[in-house]
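User: quick one - fold this with glutamine bound?
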Amino acid sequence: MVRVGVLALQGGVAEHVSALAGLGAETALVRRPADLAGLDAIVLPGGESSVFDRLARAFGLAGPLASAITDGMPALATCAGLIYLAARIEGSARGQQTLGVLDVTVRRNAFGTQLDSFETSVRVAGLDAPVPATFIRAPEVVGTGPGVEVTSRLEDGRIVGVRQGAVTAYAFHPEETGDDRLHRAWLESAVGRGPWQERPAC
Ligand code: GLN
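Assistant: Sure. Structure tokens for the protein plus glutamine:
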């Protein structure tokens, strides 16, 4: 069985756990470096990226998590998770740091405040039909490095999905909609073994 960690410092953890469990994956909550041991893949949920940053650094998790992803642990990130992985952010909170493992520039809160949240459907590379997508204080990807593939855009051209190696990230929340196609597609691509599993737990 595939064992998938869900970063559980804050945010929409339960929705991802239930989507993954519904697809038959074993899930594990990740808060401390030792929680990374034995994972096949990891999900970074939505929430508040500056809080992820503060807590991950306080728990000593930021460095080991960045190393695991750099070493090839497959990752799925949504909304704040995307921001937390990004190499560059616009509109960062004071002193906010990121893991910097995804070579994109993201603009935080690019679609406005919580009140401007909306649902739409988006096309995603690899899926033949659009998926429902919830945008909640969502970021927009405004720049991509050479190794980054754009997998989803809104109709106005704004980038809301990217992939770089084993990292898949969306600006929206697929886990809020009850449609598990993006989790399924990611899980299928994430199954496998890699060097991150040899990394000893701290
Ligand atoms: N705006 C939030 C942030 O900067 C992200 C919102 C979300 O994850 N729904 O982290």
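One thing worth noting: Residues 193-199 have pLDDT under 50 and may be disordered.
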